[in-house]
Design goal:
Elements lengths: L6 H14 L11 H40 L4 H10 L6 H10 L1 H9 L2
């Protein structure tokens, strides 16, 4: 007796992978074994980098705050310490936005320390 296979389910599973591999170059979007490998690897990178993105943005905000703080005669660490002492609770994302788009407001914050 021949072995029973669920062709419909296998086909749907393959279609899902091929859809995810759309836009990949060459065999990465055409050959099943290679598609499977590269899609899974891509999903691993996506999972990892959703977390890394948060770190990257935090460092970008810190760089921007530090640059603006130095223009106002202080450093990032002194400024953050002063804000903590004065109980000024502005997160780094908002502070970096203020530093970039409203330098006069940022200067007022630095002067209040």
């Amino acid at each position: 007796m021949p072995r029973s296979v669920n062709k419909a389910a296998a086909h749907q599973r393959k279609r899902k992978y091929y859809k995810l591999a759309k836009g990949y170059w060459g065999a990465r979007s055409k050959v099943w074994t290679i598609v499977k490998h590269h899609v899974e690897k891509g999903l691993q990178y996506a999972y990892r980098d959703r977390r890394n993105k948060k770190r990257t943005f935090r460092s970008l905000w810190i760089v921007r705050i530090n640059a603006a703080a130095r223009l106002n005669g202080t450093t990032y660490s002194r400024m953050m310490h002063g804000m903590k002492q004065k109980n000024i609770a502005i997160n780094r994302k908002v502070l970096a936005n203020i530093a970039m788009n409203h330098p006069d407001v940022f200067t007022a914050i630095v002067k209040s320390l």
